[in-house]
Amino acid sequence: MVERIMPEPYRIKMVEPVKVPDRDEREEALKRAHYNMFGLRSQDVYIDLLTDSGTGAMSKYQWGALMIGDEAYAGADSFFSLKKAVKEILGFDYVVPTHQGRAAENVVFGTLVKKGDVVPFNMPFDTTRAHIFNNGGEPLDCVIDEAYHPEVQHPFKGNVDIKKLEAAVAKYGKDRIPFVMVTITNNSGGGQPVSLENLRQVSDVCRSHGILLLLDGARMAENAYFIKTREEACRGMSVAEILKETMNTADAITVSCKKDPLVNIGGMVCSRTEELHNSFLPRVILFEGYATYGGLAGRDLEALALGLREMVDEQYLAHRVAQVRYLGDLLGEGGVPCVTPAGGHAIFIDAAAFLPHIPQSAYPADVLGIEIYREGAIRGIGLGALAFATPDETGRIVYPKLELFRLAINRRTYTNHHIEFIAQTILDVYGRRDAIRYGLKEGYAPAVKGMKHFLVHLEPYAL
Ligand SMILES: *Cc1c(COP(=O)(O)O)cnc(C)c1O
């Protein structure tokens, strides 16, 4: 059942006109884009759900703060605005800004991971995984088994399986495990939350073995909101208190500030101790910029300091999570197969179940993307075989377990009416799904592993 919809806790002060391209224009745009959603121009798209990264709307306070940015190379006031917000909202004494999340990973993993190391995770995000490989290490998924089943209900599907973690610690030991990392919410597993109880258990395991615990906090506020609504022991706490408690379990965090912290660009590394913080600084200066600006302008730091405060606003979070769930409910009521329960930032359609007559080798998630764009000029992204299939040692293609299509919801950007239009569009495609009888084959594809789906050229062929 669709619950009563929650109205937007904001009003619109400045509009960004968008136009709906007509059917001929959409066909032209698809051809120009080589049928790859990354190839579309923004002006060809009516509702853009490609990603929730850096695509949210800043508040009038953030826009106002841009004017007071201090652009000093070192020791800018704006850095101290950020440092104060980090201390107040997250409780860390030390912070370095970076230009985005993967830059924070480059700083931390380049400093701490050496060849032969193993890093246990619930699940790492793609760039996180790539950075560990790049430093000669190996990530190890320790998420609970429920995470791999789209239809299984669990309030904290992002949790770490403590038995798997203990087994990893017993096998590799402190010498080969530089740190354990937990992604909150678990993006690669569908934006699913991790409970505070689970984080405390992970922290206990780490402390008893003298291993650092790091968090990937891109969606730490959404995670705290899920804890408030789903974890009995935390019901009486505010989201701000829960977030602080969450952070208390960790020695350091990396953050893509383009997600929950509500800015269009930025990242950061926050550390508990001066020793850890100092160990990161040479790499910050080498790759990002001086330690007090890290690749960002002073005005960006001001907007970020405010974004950190705004992200824990409970009315905002309640609406955000309800809006994502509303889309999931509308699609579910119409029979569209989706990952459940809905995550914090996106709805994932099970494309294999939506288009069961298209084999995974013909990229059904990406066919679905083309059809949804055709129907309503809405852009999402396929996360299936095109993105994740890899050849094994013998050259045989190993397909991913899940063939998903993601609709990421931008923060404070679209109204519930847009959500209804998105659902209607997808239901229209669902109604004519049996007539969708084509696959996609690759034309140009880049040689670099893991980069294919961003750059590949695709061509439809009849099935
Ligand atoms: C987006 C993201 C990153 C990488 O951040 P960028 O800002 O895109 O570089 C890392 N971890 C998670 C969980 C993310 O969602």
UniProtKB/TrEMBL annotation:
Identify the NCBIfam families for this entry: PRK13238.1
Protein's recorded name:
Tryptophanase
Q: Which InterPro entries match?
A: ArAA_b-elim_lyase/Thr_aldolase (IPR001597), Beta-eliminating_lyase (IPR011166), PyrdxlP-dep_Trfase (IPR015424), PyrdxlP-dep_Trfase_major (IPR015421), PyrdxlP-dep_Trfase_small (IPR015422)
The superkingdom listed in its UniProt entry is: Bacteria
Its cofactor is: pyridoxal 5'-phosphate
Q: Example GO molecular function term? A: carbon-carbon lyase activity
Q: Which residues carry this modification: N6-(pyridoxal phosphate)lysine?
A: K259
Q: What is one Gene Ontology biological process annotated in the Swiss-Prot or TrEMBL record? A: aromatic amino acid metabolic process
From what organism does this protein derive? Aminithiophilus ramosus
Keyword Cytoplasm attached:
no
Q: Which Pfam families match?
A: Beta_elim_lyase
Q: Which UniProt keywords apply?
A: Lyase, Pyridoxal phosphate
The record's family statement is:
Belongs to the beta-eliminating lyase family.
Looking at the record, the residues that make up the Aromatic amino acid beta-eliminating lyase/threonine aldolase domain are: 48-424
